[in-house]
Amino acid sequence: MSNKTIIHFDLDAFFVSCERRLDSSLNNRPVIIGGTGSRGVVAAASYEARRYGVHSAMNMSLAKQLCPKAFVIRGNGGLYSKMSKEVTDILLEELPIVEKASVDEFYGDLTGMDKFFGCYKFSKELRAKIIHETGLPISFGLSINKTVSKVATGEAKPNNQMNVAQGYEKRFLAPLSIKKIPMVGDKTFKQFSLLGIREVGLVQQMPIERMISVFGKNGRIIWERCNGIDDSPIRPFYERKSISSERTYGKDTFDQDIIYTTLSAMAENLSFQLRRGNKLTSVVTVKIRYSDFQTYSKQLKIKHTSADHILIPTVIELFKKLYDRRVLVRLIGVRFSGLTEGHYQIDMFENTNKTVNLYKAMDLIRNKYGDHLVRRANTLGEGSRTIGNQGNPFDGRPPILLAHRHR
């Protein structure tokens, strides 16, 4: 049995809590945050609104029907990232190792700290400090690994804490719904239900071979997590300031179609990298190097986003404003900076449900089969070569094309 001590922090109803910090009149009232239009999507809901059945990713029109007295707020991704950073800074100052799992979720490694003072006592004092200095409610779970700590946090919420003593992991997990185990989503839960299994305790009693035969390699991981076994490490948090991509043409060019294709492919690939890393950008920069090696750049500050249907047109417009010498182009580059942590949910403030689902589907295919399997039609062509994956990016598969329109 591991002797590690892992803490998991989760900011309660984070977006709502941020709004309430600015406006205390929202306290104890149902609040819904997200796209305010008829086709908008819910990004977050207060506990008061959740009692009416409102949840994230729900169509805003339906949410308003379920909870007509709710205060509906458009939301501010930049504000939430700023408040998340306040919590991050406190944790980095107090803990030896911190992993930032998302804008409102953190892991910390307290292993060995019991030699100096009790880990649970320290954790309670740290939680109290965060609440006092930021005004944001936060919960934590403490145990020997990430899985048990995360589940414990869920059981402690809202705005509370829980310690699962070493050796009690299986006993703690046994009566809980299998759905509370990380990586057990709706589809996997339905499979368990067909087997007559709904509680973790029943999985604990199953032979691991049976789990593997039904669920494949994931069956072993689920079985281990149900039994309180998880050796996954804490991944230290390092703030990345920017991501960029450049292309030097083999032959200097005037061809606008080639240049626009290159810029679009760069912006699309970088946007995907942002979403994969739970990042949002607020500054876009385009760089040009002419055939005489004169180099120029132009940047624009924008609202925090990771959506390529916003970033691609921005990059193209910046290039149009920058390119004025009518000299052959040797190199072009795109950089996204001003990065902040952020769930893709933050983009729901402006996206329709259809757009959000499209991005999720595209990114799922890219994560599974490669960055270039799904591409916008305007990123194909000579100008897109060598952008992103090298070698054979399609692995023998033709790309799925998406039409692209500038709005």
Automatic annotation (TrEMBL):
Stretch forming the signal peptide: none
Cofactor binding, note field: Binds 2 magnesium ions per subunit.
Residues reported in the UniProt entry to bind Mg(2+): D10, D104
Pfam families for this protein: IMS (PF00817), IMS_C (PF11799)
Cofactor: Mg(2+)
Active site: E105
Catalytic activity: DNA(n) + a 2'-deoxyribonucleoside 5'-triphosphate = DNA(n+1) + diphosphate
Domain called UmuC: residue spans: 6-185
Statement: the UniProt record of this protein carries the keyword Magnesium: yes
Entry annotated with the keyword DNA-binding: yes
InterPro entries: DNA/RNA_pol_sf, DNA_pol_Y-fam_lit_finger_sf, DNA_pol_Y-fam_little_finger, DNA_polymerase-Y, DNApol_IV, Rev_trsase/Diguanyl_cyclase, UmuC
Subcellular localization(s) per the UniProt record: Cytoplasm
Keywords, ordered alphabetically: Cytoplasm, DNA damage, DNA repair, DNA replication, DNA-binding, DNA-directed DNA polymerase, Magnesium, Metal-binding, Mutator protein, Nucleotidyltransferase, Transferase
Site (Substrate discrimination): F15
Listed GO MF terms: DNA-directed DNA polymerase activity
PROSITE patterns: UMUC
Its EC number(s): 2.7.7.7
Cited NCBIfam families: PRK02406.1
Xref: PANTHER family: DNA POLYMERASE KAPPA, DNA REPAIR POLYMERASE UMUC / TRANSFERASE FAMILY MEMBER
Subunit annotation: Monomer.
Family: Belongs to the DNA polymerase type-Y family.
Function per UniProt: Poorly processive, error-prone DNA polymerase involved in untargeted mutagenesis. Copies undamaged DNA at stalled replication forks, which arise in vivo from mismatched or misaligned primer ends. These misaligned primers can be extended by PolIV. Exhibits no 3'-5' exonuclease (proofreading) activity. May be involved in translesional synthesis, in conjunction with the beta clamp from PolIII.
Protein name as it appears in the record: DNA polymerase IV
